[in-house]
Amino acid sequence: MLQVCLNGARTRTECPVLPISPAELARAARAAVAAGAQDIHLHAKTPEGEDTLDPHIVAAAVTAVRAAVSNIPVGVTTGAWTLPDPAQRAAQIRSWTVLPDHASVNWHEDGADEVAAALLERGIGIEAGIYSGTRAAQRFLAWPRAHRVLRILAEVTDSDPRTAAATAAGLISELSPAAEAPLLLHGEGPASWPVLLMASSHDLYMRIGLEDVLHLPDGTAADDNASLVLAARDMIESAGTLGGTSTSPHQ
Question: Which CATH number fits domain 2-239: 3.20.20.70, 3.30.360.10, 3.40.1400.10, 3.40.1440.60?
Answer without folding.
Answer: 3.20.20.70
